[in-house]
Amino acid sequence: MPPTRHDRAYELDERGSGRPLPRSFFAQPTLTVARQLLGKILVHASPDGTTAGRIVEVEAYRGPRDRAAHSRGGHRSPRNESMYGPAGHAYVYLVYGLHHCLNVVTRAPGVPEAVLLRALEPIRGLSLMRTRRGGAAHPDWQLCRGPGVLCRSLGIDRTFDGRSLRGGRLRIVDAPGFAAPLIRRTARIGVDYAGPDAARPWRFLVAGVQAVSGKRIP
DNA sequence: GAATAGATTGTCT
DNA sequence: GACAATCTATTCT
To answer: pTM of the predicted model, to two decimals?
Structure first.
């Protein structure tokens, strides 16, 4: 497949390589990491081929005091153990018995905070994404629109839980961010059970991007 | 375009 | 046995 305009713009080579982000990037406060992840690129170099997309929507989950987080009240179990691990590693879980969701762990080991990746703008391996989605004729902007769907398109499952995202087959590489005025905040999605924390504006997305979940912002 | 129901299973009470 | 950081198809308007 010939390189696309996006590949050159984001300096991805044939294997989807790029500059990794330092661990210090992921160890920052979770809201900072969430905002700064917008524009970075998630790459999965699988045996079937490489798929990649630019991060355009995320949500922050802020540990024991956040009643929407899996680590609320300091809860710790085999399922969410990765949230307690080092910054820059993955926390992958299954929701509703059907869909995988990918989080990026933040802060110091023992501090169970993370950023959920909710949508990507696809930039590489679009035909493989369509195959993984079951061969339906989805438009490009629908291929990674939503946390479960992006994992399906990129072939991400719980085998990546607890693994580093700064090297290996699944990784996040550096790329230019978005101008601050384009970044919007809203309440998080699907956390109505979380009482007062349901309303906190800890979802970050990019205005003018079609590939975000829910209603897009002009 | 908006609202609704159903899928499907690991995890926790 | 209840519920979940979701998605899709279907049935309205």
So the answer is: 0.94
